[in-house]
Design goal:
Blueprint: H1 3-14, H2 18-27, H3 36-47, H4 51-63
Length: 93
């Protein structure tokens, strides 16, 4: 599953766009220095998100929407179309 697909599926499961989840996390004080397990526990408790979806969100909470070019390309199931993830929600596309 691509990075973007994890974020899209998290949106479908929670009813909140990735940006809304990032904003909630930042409002709780989560950011670059927060341990991943702390964020994962919150996402599990509040939204019942598992580790895969949670880790995609941990990345954008801690680092923003940019991902490595190594994840971008047209082959393989884990490839994304762009090095910048869409956080504005599925309906915005």
């Amino acid at each position: 599953m691509s990075f973007q697909a994890y974020l899209d599926n998290a949106e479908k499961k929670t009813g909140r766009t990735p940006q809304e989840l990032v904003d909630l996390a930042h409002a709780r004080g989560y950011g670059p220095d927060t341990k991943a397990n702390e964020i994962l526990a919150w996402l599990k408790d509040e939204f019942d998100l598992g580790r895969g979806h949670g880790m995609a969100l941990v990345h954008v909470i801690k680092n923003g929407p940019g991902i490595s070019d190594a994840h971008v390309g047209s082959t393989g199931t884990h490839r994304d179309e762009s090095a910048v993830l869409r956080l504005d929600g599925i309906a915005a596309r």
